[in-house]
Amino acid sequence: MALLDVEEVNTFYGQSQALYDVSLSVERGEVVTLLGRNGAGKTTTLRTITGITPAASGVVRYDGEDFTGLSTYERIQRGLGYVPEDRQVWPQLTVAENLQVPAGRGGDWTVEDAYDLFPALADLADTETGDLSGGEQQMLVVARGLLGGTRLLLLDEPSEGLAPQIVADVRDAIVELKDDLTIVLVEQNVRLALEVADRVYVLANGRVVHEDDADGLEPDDPTLREHVAV
């Protein structure tokens, strides 16, 4: 049984439909990447899985449980972790305090594990998050997303706007996490996405238009050029 099943989901923003009969599945231990141009529906798919933007119809099933009617808080309690594109750090809190808040919910991952994954954060533990660079904030929110009993981590554009070295650090972290977590990754950096993913879904205009194993694709694949390349 898959850890996550999204079945024929339709999602709206007001009167505007954003997702059309989107279906996908994620097996335990997989990294599944959602690719597509801006506005294709990738972020809306993550928001629908978390319940931030609930589906108007269709089913979101997590570990065999129908999540469709649950609140975002209830979904997080059951093991979803979400790292949004806009990071949403708590700027007045230190790095350590940002990590301690979700760590207080329990789970296998500890703050020390987060520091092991991103050693630079250990050196910044007493620094207020508002004083961090964009790359340091990105490492923090990825680390924070692991805590509190997360089993399925949703990552939205974790490499966007980052220096190449930080992108490499984030890529290495995702590879390391594959042994412990299931991950759904939204990423514009196609090369990075294919390096870390097991499977790929391509979205266009709110619809899934292609599914493939990641090792069966190259960044210049005709399907990716059609639906992903700018």
What does this structure look like?
The chain has 230 residues and is an alpha/beta fold. Helix content is 33%, strand content 27%. It contains nine helices and ten strands. The strands form two sheets. Strands 6-7-8-3-9-10 form a six-stranded mixed beta sheet, sandwiched between helices. A four-stranded antiparallel beta sheet has the order 2-1-4-5, covered by helices on one side. The mean pLDDT is 92.
In short:
By secondary structure, the chain is α/β, with parallel strands linked by helices. The chain has nine helices and ten strands. The protein has helices at 42-50, 72-77, 95-103, 111-117, 119-123, 134-146, 164-177, 190-196, 222-227, and strands at 4-13, 16-26, 31-35, 57-62, 65-66, 80-83, 152-156, 182-186, 199-204, 207-213.
Blueprint of the fold:
Blueprint: E1 4-13, E2 16-26, E3 31-35, H1 42-50, E4 57-62, E5 65-66, H2 72-77, E6 80-83, H3 95-103, H4 111-117, H5 119-123, H6 134-146, E7 152-156, H7 164-177, E8 182-186, H8 190-196, E9 199-204, E10 207-213, H9 222-227
Parallel strand pairs: 3-8, 3-9, 6-7, 7-8
Antiparallel strand pairs: 1-2, 1-4, 4-5, 9-10
